[in-house]
Specification:
The complex is a heterodimer. Chain A is mainly β. In chain A, about 0% of the residues lie in helices and about 50% in strands. Chain A contains no helices and eleven strands. In chain A, a hairpin with a 2-residue loop joins β5 and β6. In chain B, strands 2, 5, 6, 10, 11 and 12 form a six-stranded mixed beta sheet that branches. In chain B, a hairpin with a 6-residue loop joins β5 and β6. Chain B is built from no helices and twelve strands. Classes of the chains: A mainly beta, B mainly beta. Chains A and B meet through β5, β9 and β10 of A and β5, β6, β10 and β11 of B.
């Protein structure tokens, strides 16, 4: 019964390159959230997706960042033309569909640590 | 204004003693959820305990309990019989419904707990 799987665990990019972070939710979960954690800070919400739909992207920077959750395959967080300020830990969480969404627990993956040189 | 406030950047506790980690929150939504997560040095986010705003009783999960004082808007985590493996960052988080219809979590800055042998 695998948990939320994120890969890679560590990613190093040079300024101007693209970063692609993957998240496979827990089995049976169809809601995915992405969060960013800067050093010495708590997690900050970026985007909430359901299969093939972006529901809430109010926490996403307006430029260079995009997310998708296709019908088949993992959710992808894509950062184009990375800058040093993008260096952070990026966490994905998933929760099950239906029921009382306010009560659904979000289970987190181990995160991807992005370092921009 | 901070939605989640954790006033203790760091705490020390003797092994086998109990410890309370403070968390206060701010919301005008009558329906919300409060969560605690543990982040060990390895970096993953581990769900510990959940309290719903309408729950009549304080939540408990093994050695973890949540001291929920709704009028004071506080949701302190109590860890009983501390173990060396409890040394980690602890984050309090709140979920309320956003204008976009999602239920993202808002995190505090965390408390670093160190258990002393």
């Amino acid at each position: 019964n695998a948990g939320v799987m994120q890969n890679p665990r560590h990613l190093v990019r040079r300024r101007g390159q693209e970063a692609r972070l993957r998240c496979s939710p827990m089995k049976g979960h169809s809601h995915v959230y992405w969060y960013r954690q800067l050093p010495e800070e708590g997690l900050k919400f970026m985007v909430y997706l359901q299969k093939e739909n972006i529901i809430d992207e109010s926490g996403m920077p307006k430029e260079r960042f995009s997310a998708e959750f296709p019908k088949e395959g993992p959710s992808i967080l894509r950062i184009q033309q990375v800058v040093r300020g993008d260096s952070a830990a990026y966490f994905c969480a998933s929760s099950p569909p239906g029921g009382n969404l306010a009560k659904n627990i979000q289970y987190f993956g181990a995160g991807t640590r992005l370092s921009v040189l | 204004a901070q939605k989640i406030t954790q006033t203790q950047p760091g705490m020390f506790v003797q092994e086998k003693e109990a410890v309370t980690l403070d968390c206060t929150y701010d919301t005008s939504d009558p329906s919300y959820g409060l969560f605690w997560y543990k982040q060990p040095s390895s970096g993953e986010m581990i769900f510990l305990i959940y309290q719903g705003s309408y729950d009549q009783q304080n939540a408990t999960e093994g050695r973890y309990s949540l001291n929920f004082q709704k009028a004071r808007k506080s949701a302190n985590l109590v860890i009983s019989a501390s173990q060396l493996g409890d040394s980690a960052m602890y984050f309090c988080a709140m979920r309320e419904r956003s204008g976009a219809g999602s239920y993202q979590l808002t995190f505090g800055k965390g408390t670093k707990l160190s258990v002393i042998p």
